[in-house]
Structure formats: structure tokens, C-alpha cells
Amino acid sequence: LPPEERLGFAVVGLGELALHQVLPAFGRAKRCRLAALVSGDADKARAVASQYGIGRENLYDYKAYDRLADDPAVDVVYIILPNSMHLEFTSRAAAAGKHVLCEKPMATSAADCEAMIAACEKAKKQLMIAYRCQYEPHHREAIRLARSGELGPLRLIEATNGQNQGPPGQWRHRKALAGGGSLPDVGIYCLNAARYITGEEPSEVSAQVLTDSSDPRFAEVEDRIAFQLKFPSGVLADCRSYYSAHESRRCRVMAERGWIDMDPAFSYQGLRMKVARVERGAEHVSEVRLPSPDQFAAEMDHMAERAARGERPHTPGEEGLQDQRIIEAIYRAAREGRPVPL
Ligand code: NDP
Is the ipTM of this complex over 0.95? Predict the structure, then answer.
């Protein structure tokens, strides 16, 4: 689309993800353009604004944020703040008459997620949670193939997403800001994948946490967590996330007559996919080669397209709420040492 037809986005919070992934992605997007920046750091905001050609009149701090209501250049607000701030900044954006694209995890409690949905409904604005993998070709192919029946019924999903998350002192290690540790931050990709690959909602969860709380990073939030989801059709998803080992981001789906393997599965780029098919008793493994377009450009373009038409996005607030409800059940299962029905 030409610039004047693209939807204008305000990016809120100029941290790692915004600076290194989201802002550059506007250069690859087709339906949206960067229109404003919101930051608590005026010097950084000015420097970033001059780099991206954003005028002073389109720079806001967190207090002036509500004045976005009077900025006709902004249609969508993209919230890239610590998790516990998502509720406040979504509600204020909706009240200012803007659509909201909000980073995952949606919030730090199911109650906050519900309030975010209500705020956007009241303002008649769209709300999308930035589940980038759901807009990515390898994951879309995995969904298609898994649900097509070509490999027979699905039996097991194995998913792991983890990384070494240091140094101590960052907001991800503070429960009040993050809501939890590796589970809501990176384990959520495994949970969300198990749901979109099966197309089902889990009926029961079990979980185990292992955290060395003498490590200053883990005084408040969990490090390693394993969780299992039982789905009504009989699929068992076995998932893991962690904050204390070298990164690994993989997903494998086992079906009666084959498997789908993505390794890495949850990275920003370089995804690889293999599929095994059993035909007349012999296994054939092939590599599936697909393009790897910018995941952030793809999700922002989706939001722009749906918001322009006044339609619900593919990953609306309800998608984030459902993950948050399951995350709360996973923590309960770990705490109580027993399976929790959903
Ligand atoms: P950072 O800590 O790098 O950036 C967060 C930014 O939020 C800060 O730079 C700051 O921006 C602003 N901020 C406002 N108040 C605070 C506060 N009290 N403490 C810290 N920062 C504050 O975090 P990330 O960019 O890694 O993560 C931001 C969000 O994006 C999270 O919700 C995270 O889960 C999500 N995320 C999603 C990813 C994905 O793949 N979809 C990957 C990484 C993160 P300023 O200085 O401009 O005010």
C-alpha cells in the first residue's frame, strides 16, 4: 500500500524487542507505517525518532500518552512494555480511540486480560495479541498438515523453549512486573503451539517446577518448568521452558503415520522443518523448505488489514486470555503436585 493508505502505528516502550525487531520490521511491512513513539527516556526517543524520520510532535512520554487521542496519524498502538503494564496501556489506548496490538504474554493475570478485552470492546476497537508464530509459514504448514489427517491421528506433541536469562535485576526476574518466570515469557510459545496445532483446548494440566532460588535471578520467578497438557482427542503435549541453560527452541508432533519436526521452531528466523511419512511400512523423511519472512512485519500487516476493515484479528484478546488461564492452572498443578482439570 502507498504510505497514505497504510495504518499508522505508535510503538510504546523502546526496549530490546522494539529497537531490534519491531522498528526495523516497518521497513518490510506492506500495510502499516511507523507514526509515533512512546518512551520514558526522552533522549533515547529523540535519537530513535531522528533515525526513523518521526517528528517531535509524534513523540510521547507515558504521561502524555493519552494525547494520542488527538493524533490522527496513529490508528494502532503497539504495546511492547513489561508484562504487568499491558493492562494500563491497553486501556488508555482504547480510551484514546486506538486499536491495540499487545505483546505476549497478554498480561500477568486472567483478570487483567478480561479487563483489556472489556476496555477494547467498550471503545469498539480491535485488540490483537502478538503471537508472531501464528503468522509464520512453517507454523501455518504444521497446522495444516497436523489437522489434514495426512499423517493419521495426532498422539504427542513435544515442545521446548528456553534460554539463559541473565543478568539478574531485569524486570523479567521480578514477579510483579513479569507475572512469572520462563513459563509466561517463553513457555507460552509451547503452550500456544500445542493449542493451535491440535486446534483443541486442553482438558487437564500437570506440571513440575525446578528452580534454584539461591540464584539471584530466581528469587521471585521460576527457572525450569515442565508441563503436560491432555487434549480431548487424546493428544498429550509435553512442554518445557527454562531460563538457565543454552537456548533451544523445538517442537515435534508425533502422529500415527509420521511426524513433523521444527528445530528451531520459535526463533525469529532460520526455522527448519522436517516431515516423516510412513508409506507401505517405510519411513520417508523430507525437509520442507518455506520462505521465512519477517514475523513482526507479518503480524503488524495482519493487524493493519483487520483493523482497517473493522474485523477481529486471528489472535484476539481471547487467545491471550485462554493462555493466561492455562498458565494459572499450570502453576496450580505444580504447587499442588497433582493434575488440574480445566
Ligand atoms: P525490555 O526490558 O528490553 O524493554 C521494555 C521497555 O519498556 C523499556 O526499554 C522501557 O522503554 C519500557 N519500560 C517502561 N517501564 C519500565 C519498567 N518499569 N521496567 C522496564 N522497562 C520499562 O523488554 P523487551 O523488549 O524484551 O520485552 C517487552 C515486551 O515484549 C514483553 O511483554 C515481552 O514479553 C515481549 N517480547 C516479545 C517477544 C516476541 O518474540 N514476541 C520477544 C521479546 C519480548 P523506554 O525506555 O522507552 O521507556
Answer: yes
